[in-house]
Structures are given as structure tokens and as C-alpha cells.
């Protein structure tokens, strides 16, 4: 009952789902990316020879972005399904969802991170409260000048606020593409690399549907944006978490978070990152 109430209070207004061929380019995989069902379903596959991936045709500077994923079922140990936004270069910005594979019966780990000017080290990891391989679930990023909010099925799980007034960098000037890939990372993905990929289970397949982006499209080289900060259609540009949603983030983190960089004093012996004391 509690989770259901929060979803109703937080969900953004949805728009029509876009066709994958219209919004994305296949970037690698040599035939391992398939677009099916009249452009409404995309699948990535991984075998011992190669993984696969795709990237958005457009770059975005701020957006409310939804994607439904159904993750690799069964023994997916060693695999990573990555879904993220990123700019290019050594000083890039990045907003990450990564799904770390598991042995059959063990939970997936949802890994999140935020990079600014090429610096990450802001990982938070969660177990999910459902089996993400049995059906599609919606994974969302709301990125505006105030904050970055990660959500699962409309439930906010993490907020990274704009704290530039305290000297903390925030992604706001580099347009980003949307990327996704399925790849082998058995040197670290499952139990720190102790469990290797079982290639007898290949090919591994992840599925995507119902992409939706209410976002500002970056036009290069002019550097112009396709949205207005004053438009009633772009209310997401000023949206922040209300008190109910903030309580939900706290509840999710108390019950499902398994790693928080802001609690890892061993990793930061000289002191935790400054945003940890301000969040």
C-alpha cells in the first residue's frame, strides 16, 4: 500500500512511446541488436565473441527520460546491462544505471553513479524489490538544473542535488547522448569478479520497450535547445522532490540500499566527498 501510494504521487505525465529506429542508432554488436514488433521492441545480446549496444541520435541537455527494460534471465553472472547518459571526453559528465548480473536465484544489483567533469566515485547500489527478469520495469532519470533523480517504476530511489553554491560541480553544460549496452564484465560484476560468466548459458539477452524522452534536444554546432524553460509543457525542468517523495527515497535507501559511497570511510580516509555532509 505504501509503495503504491508513492507511485501515484510521483509519476510524471507520460507521452507516447517513440520508435527505436527513429530515436536510436545501433553502435556495435555485429547483428546482436534487433529491433522488432514494428519498432516497439529492441533486444541486445551477448555471447563469448561480443556484446552489443546502441546510442540515441539526439544529444540532450536536461530531460525526463524513461526506458522499460527486462533484464537477462537465469544465470547472468558476469554480465552488465548498462543504461546511461554521457557526454564525450576525459572531462565528460555521465548519469548511470547499471545492472550487475547474478547467479540464478540471487538478486540483481542496481548500480547508480554520477560523473561531473570526468570524476565519478559517487556510487550507490540497491537490490530491487521485484525480479527484473520476469517483466518490463521502467527506469527513469529526471535531470534538470536543480537535481538528478533516479526512479524505478515511478518510485524515486536517489537524488543528486545541484550544490554548486557550495563549490560542488553539477552536470549542466555538456549535452549527453543516451547509451545502452550489454557486455561481459566478469572481472568485477558479480561478487567482485569471483563468479565468472557461464558461456554455456549464452546468448544472454536484455529487452527494451516504451522509450520516452521529454527533453531539451541540443542542436550542434549552433548550441541551441529545442525547449523553453517557460513552457507549461516542460514543467519537469523545475520539478523537485516533494516531502512525500523525499520520504520515499529515505525508505528505499533504508530498506534496499546495499552500498553508499557517502558511508564508505575506508574508501575516503581523508574525508567523505563534500556533498555527503550537505545532502
TrEMBL record:
Recorded GO CC terms: apoplast; plant-type cell wall
Cell compartment(s), UniProt: Secreted, Cell wall; Secreted, Extracellular space, Apoplast
InterPro entries in alphabetical order: Beta-glucanase-like, Beta-glucanase/XTH, Beta_glucanase, ConA-like_dom_sf, GH16_AS, XET_C, XTH
SUPFAM superfamilies per record: Concanavalin A-like lectins/glucanases
Residues in GH16 domain copies: 14-208
Main localization (coarse): secreted
PTM per Swiss-Prot/TrEMBL: Contains at least one intrachain disulfide bond essential for its enzymatic activity.
Gene3D superfamilies registered for this protein in UniProt: 2.60.120.200
Active site per database record: 94 (nucleophile), 98 (proton donor)
EC code(s) of this entry: 2.4.1.207
GO molecular function: hydrolase activity, hydrolyzing O-glycosyl compounds; xyloglucan:xyloglucosyl transferase activity
Gene Ontology biological process terms, A to Z: cell wall organization; plant-type secondary cell wall biogenesis; xyloglucan metabolic process
Positions of glycan attachment: 102
Signal peptide residue numbers: 1-16
Record key words, sorted: Apoplast, Cell wall, Cell wall biogenesis/degradation, Disulfide bond, Glycoprotein, Glycosidase, Hydrolase, Secreted, Signal, Transferase
Protein purpose: Catalyzes xyloglucan endohydrolysis (XEH) and/or endotransglycosylation (XET). Cleaves and religates xyloglucan polymers, an essential constituent of the primary cell wall, and thereby participates in cell wall construction of growing tissues.
Similarity annotation: Belongs to the glycosyl hydrolase 16 family.
Protein name as catalogued: Xyloglucan endotransglucosylase/hydrolase
Amino acid at each position: 500500500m505504501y509503495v503504491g501510494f508513492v507511485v501515484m504521487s510521483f509519476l510524471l505525465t507520460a507521452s507516447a512511446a517513440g520508435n527505436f529506429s527513429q530515436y536510436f542508432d545501433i553502435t556495435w554488436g555485429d547483428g546482436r541488436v534487433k529491433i522488432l514488433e514494428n519498432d516497439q521492441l529492441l533486444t541486445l545480446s551477448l555471447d563469448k565473441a561480443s556484446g552489443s549496444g546502441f546510442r540515441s541520435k539526439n544529444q540532450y541537455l536536461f530531460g525526463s527520460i524513461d526506458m522499460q527494460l527486462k533484464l537477462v534471465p537465469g544465470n547472468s553472472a558476469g554480465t552488465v546491462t548498462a543504461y546511461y547518459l554521457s557526454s564525450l571526453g576525459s572531462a565528460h559528465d555521465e548519469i548511470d544505471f547499471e545492472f550487475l548480473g547474478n547467479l540464478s536465484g540471487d538478486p540483481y544489483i542496481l548500480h547508480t553513479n554520477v560523473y561531473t567533469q570526468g570524476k565519478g566515485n559517487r556510487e550507490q547500489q540497491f537490490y530491487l524489490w521485484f525480479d527484473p527478469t520476469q517483466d518490463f520495469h521502467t527506469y527513469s532519470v529526471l535531470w534538470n538544473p536543480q537535481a538528478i533523480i533516479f526512479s524505478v517504476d515511478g518510485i524515486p530511489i536517489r537524488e543528486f542535488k545541484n550544490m554548486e553554491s557550495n563549490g560542488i560541480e553539477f552536470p549542466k553544460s555538456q549535452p549527453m547522448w543516451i547509451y545502452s549496452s550489454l557486455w561481459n564484465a566478469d572481472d568485477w560484476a558479480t561478487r567482485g569478479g569471483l563468479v565468472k560468466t557461464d558461456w554455456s548459458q549464452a546468448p544472454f539477452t536484455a529487452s527494451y520497450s516504451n522509450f520516452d524522452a521529454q527533453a531539451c534536444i541540443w542542436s550542434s554546432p549552433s548550441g541551441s535547445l529545442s525547449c523553453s524553460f517557460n513552457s507549461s509543457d516542460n514543467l519537469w525542468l523545475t520539478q523537485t522532490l516533494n516531502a512525500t517523495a523525499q520520504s520515499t527515497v529515505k525508505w528505499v535507501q533504508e530498506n534496499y540500499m546495499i552500498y553508499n559511497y557517502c558511508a564508505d570511510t575506508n574508501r575516503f580516509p581523508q574525508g567523505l566527498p563534500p556533498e555527503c555532509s550537505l545532502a
